[in-house]
């Protein structure tokens, strides 16, 4: 992976933009790209092309498949080789350590909001977008559910999934061919979640922050409820829980079929019963770490694909698009509708934050004047 990881970072995502200015921003990395040309050609397509005939140990094959699944929601046969190589570059730097934000996920959000406000921006909560406004074949703003209209000065940028963005567009604003193609994007499965608050009195002293349980390697890492992730962030940041307590998040990452839940009334007995049944695999995984976990629980919340769909407004509660690297590329953030750009994991390889960060930066670069983009590259130390 050594030459491949060097090739994967030869062109930083910060240099990309979706216009002709990329000739300048990307062009300054041409010498490095040329130096790694032979390796770059190997990064196109799926990661399994790299491992086939090289990795023969069954456990290492399974482990790499698991890493791919956690990165993309897909096995190695469908995960981008460039994506995995980039992550190897991150994982195996000298003196590397796993960073965890003080304050948990809210710490990341707060930092982003501070940066937004420093630039004169404003974050609106409970501002549910009803539709994207289109006038004269151009996206001009959004209308909120409460009727308020917000006009765009430069562009409308959607971080919603590809399916949810399409629902916000008025009929006829994009071609039926474009709509059909994007609507046909295959989704990954959804999640089950356990959010727990527990009594940590006399708990094991070697408790770690993260655990991964694989019930049966032979079933494959994408099999329903076969992989379970456990996060106990209060181990690293005690401020996330009251003294003597821990908070725990257990989830099945993109392997819960939405069809098992579709049409269920969330207030029904059938829904409550299914929640108990489908959450059992998470309890069992957690009991391998904390055997008396059920008696320790003071707060217990169970999330389902319908929870995920409702609160995150995510199509079918999906983990994200299941776009196979063996069959094609992710679309860019451009759309055929003037004034509308997209970012998020429907436009860039990877699930969740990494894809959002990279694709959002590329759209921001595209809207920024070229000289500001070049100055930014210098400022962060990747320009000439």
Topology:
Blueprint: H1 2-8, H2 22-27, H3 30-35, H4 37-42, H5 48-51, H6 58-72, H7 81-91, H8 104-118, E1 129-135, E2 138-144, E3 149-151, E4 156-158, H9 162-168, H10 176-183, E5 193-199, E6 210-214, E7 227-231, E8 245-251, H11 269-287, H12 293-296, E9 297-303, H13 305-312, E10 340-342, H14 353-367, H15 370-379
Parallel strand pairs: 4-10
Antiparallel strand pairs: 1-2, 2-3, 5-8, 5-9, 6-7, 7-8
Helix pairs in contact: 1-7
In short:
This protein is an alpha+beta fold. It contains 15 helices and 10 strands.
Architecture overview:
With 384 residues, the chain is α+β, with helices and mostly antiparallel strands. The chain has two domains: 1-92 and 124-188 and 320-384, no CATH class; 193-317, no CATH class. Helix content is 37%, strand content 14%. The chain is built from 15 helices and ten strands.
Describe this protein with a few key phrases.
globular; 15 helices; three-stranded antiparallel beta sheet; single chain; alpha+beta; 384 residues
Largest sheet: 5 strands, antiparallel
What's the helix-strand series?
A: HHHHHHHHEEEEHHEEEEHHEHEHH
State the domain count: 2
Distance between the termini: 27 Å
Structural class: alpha+beta
Give the helix tally: 15
β content, as a range? 5-15%
Low-confidence stretches: none
Based on DSSP secondary structure assignment, what is the total number of beta strands? 10
The outline comes out as globular
Taking Cα atoms only, what radius of gyration do you get, to the nearest Å? Answer: 22 Å
- Which whole number gives the mean pLDDT? 93
Give the spatial strand order of the biggest sheet: 6-7-8-5-9
Helix content: 25-40%
